[in-house]
Design brief:
Elements: E1 4-9, H1 11-15, H2 34-37, H3 40-45, H4 47-63, H5 68-79, E2 83-88, H6 94-97, E3 104-105, E4 108-115, E5 121-123, E6 142-146, H7 156-164, E7 168-172, H8 184-187, E8 191-196, E9 208-211, H9 214-225
Parallel strand pairs: 1-2, 1-7, 2-3, 7-8, 8-9
Antiparallel strand pairs: 4-5, 4-6
Helix pairs in contact: 5-9
Binding site for NAD(+): 10-29, 89-92, 173-175, 196-198, 214
Binding site for substrate: 54, 57
Enzyme class: transferase
């Protein structure tokens, strides 16, 4: 039977593609103070440092390849067997490269740029710099189109509506420690499923669970649905 499915993906989905999470011991994050590179205040103090950090992340993402979990989720969406809304906390474009469409990026997109002066958005070059002019207003106020700590995630009404009305809400590869994403399971009215490497901080809030590497567990789950 066709279902309306809302899927939230987190860093655990892209980790197997070589993109680190906040908690990786030797990852890119550990080389920077997040207060300096992932907050509006840090950007105001030192835009060069912020761009250096995101240029490095962008290079990492461009060099990465989507994995079997990304491919399986795109196949689920493309199959037409179910109405699938794909929501991600990730800022990479690996879902899209795997073939997914209409992905809701609640924390922004690494491959997009934003003008802090006029709000214009455009495709980011591989390397961004503080002196780059906005193509719309020419102000040298360009920044990555990323939701930083202290900022409101994008598309909250849209994604909350998708979760509330879904027959099935699935959280994949998320630690469930960062709100508001961690609270989405609380507004789900249908069945809920957690797919993760290990139980998350909110595991008890889900009806059912599947644990193991996303590249193994997600394709098996999708195969059963289509």
């Amino acid at each position: 039977m066709a279902m309306k499915i809302a899927i939230l993906t987190g860093a655990g989905v892209s980790a197997e593609s070589g993109l680190g999470t906040f908690r990786d011991k030797d990852g890119l994050w550990t080389k920077y103070d997040l207060n300096e590179v992932a907050t509006p205040e840090g950007f105001a103090r030192n835009p060069s440092l912020v761009h250096e950090f995101y240029n490095a992340r962008r290079r990492n993402a461009l060099e990465a390849s989507h994995n079997a979990a990304h491919t399986a989720l795109a196949a689920l969406q493309q199959s037409g067997r179910h109405d699938v809304t794909l929501i991600t906390q990730n800022v990479d474009d690996l879902h899209e490269r795997a073939g997914a469409r209409g992905v809701i990026h609640m924390h922004g997109e690494l491959m997009r740029a934003l003008c802090a002066a006029c709000g214009h958005r455009w495709d980011a070059p591989e390397a961004m710099h503080p002196q780059d002019p906005c193509p719309a207003c020419t102000a040298a106020r360009t920044r990555p189109d990323i939701v930083w700590f202290g900022e409101i995630p994008y598309h909250m009404d849209r994604l909350a509506g998708a979760v509330e009305t879904a027959d099935l809400f699935v959280a994949i590869g998320t630690s469930a420690e960062v709100y508001p994403a961690a609270g989405l399971v609380e507004i789900a009215r249908g069945e809920t499923l957690e797919i993760n490497l290990a139980p998350s901080a909110r595991a008890n809030a889900f009806d059912t669970h599947r644990y193991g590497p996303a590249s193994e567990v997600v394709p098996a789950w999708v195969a059963a649905l289509i």
